[in-house]
Amino acid sequence: MKRMGKGLFASSVAVALGVAGSYPWNASEGDSAGFTTVPALAQDVDLLADGALDEWIWFSEANGATRESVATLKDGVLRIAGSPKGYLATRRWYREVVVEFEWRWPEGAGNSGLLVHAAAPLAWNGWPRCLEVQLRSGDAGDFILMGDRVGLVRGEEAFEGAVPGGAEIRRRIAVSASGSENEPGEWNTMRVELLGNGVRVLVNGALVNEATGLTVREGAIGLQSEGTPIEFRRVRLLPAPSK
C-alpha cells in the first residue's frame, strides 16, 4: 500500500472500504497513527450494544460493498452475508483482552474467522495482518498466521507467518483438541484469552488451542465474511484475567 499522510485515505482505498469519510487508521501498512489503542479494559464491552454497528468498520476489496449490504443486526443477532469477501473490524485497537461470543451457521456448514490484533487493512489478499482464530466448520479454534511478522510458539515448536513477496499469505496451525463444535444451526461459544504474548482458545467450554510467543500484541478485533452466511450474538470484550 502507498504511504499517505496521517488520517488520510487515497480515493481507491476509501471505495474499497465501502464507507464514506475519514477513518482513524492510516492506510499505510503497519501505521496506527491517529488510532486509539485501549491498553486495558476496566469493564465489559458489548460490541453489539444499542442494536447498532457503530463500533464496526467494513473492509473489502469489492467495490460498492457497504457495511449495511453485508451485515445486519436484529434482536441482538449479527448476520454476516459471507459475500463479498471482507471483514468487520472494531474502531479501536486492543491489547490484553478476552473476546467472548456465540456463533452459528444458519444455512449449513460454513467458513469464517475471528481476527485478533488486526492491523494493515487489506494488506494480504484482502485480509489484515493478524492472528485468525478459525471458525470454519470442523476446524474451530485453529490458528491462522495471516501475513508477515506474525508468529507464535506452541509446545516446543515455533511457527512463523508469511514472507513478504512469497506465494503464501497464511499458515494454519490445527487445534490441539477437536470435536467440541455443535451441529450447524446450533449455537456455539468461543472464548479467546489474549494475555501478554499468550493466547488460549475455548470452544463450548473446552480448551482446544493455546500458544505463547505471539509476535503481534495489539490491533483491532475482526469478524470475517468468507463465503457463507454466519450469525453472531453476545459479542463481548472482557478485562484480561490477572497474570
What is the share of helical residues?
Answer: under 10%
Order of helices and strands: HEEEHEEEEEEEEEEEEEEEE
Overall form: globular
CATH architecture: Sandwich
Number of helices: 2
State the CATH topology: Jelly Rolls
Instruction: Name the poorly predicted regions.
Output: 1-34
Oligomer: single chain
Whole-Å distance between the termini? 38 Å
The rounded Rg comes to: 17 Å
How many separate domains make up the residues?
1
Q: Strand pairing plus helix content: what structural class?
A: mainly beta
Main beta sheet, described?
A: 8 strands, antiparallel
Name of the CATH class: Mainly Beta
Write the CATH homologous superfamily: Exo-inulinase, domain 1
Strand proportion = 35-45%
Strand element count: 19
Please, could you describe this protein's structure?
- The chain has 243 residues and is mainly β.
- It has a single domain, classed as Exo-inulinase, domain 1 (Jelly Rolls, Sandwich), CATH 2.60.120.
- The protein contains 2 helices and 19 strands.
- Strands 2, 4, 5, 8, 15, 16, 17 and 19 form an 8-stranded antiparallel sheet that branches. A 7-stranded antiparallel sheet has the order 3-6-18-9-10-11-14, with no helix packed on it. It has a two-stranded parallel sheet with strand order 1-7.
- 37% of the residues are buried.
Write a compact overview of the structure shown.
This protein is mainly beta. It has helices spanning 11-17, 67-70; strands spanning 37-38, 45-46, 56-59, 71-74, 77-80, 86-90, 93-94, 97-104, 113-124, 127-134, 143-146, 151-154, 157-160, 170-173, 188-195, 198-203, 206-211, 220-225, 230-239. The protein has a single domain (37-239), classed as Jelly Rolls (Sandwich).
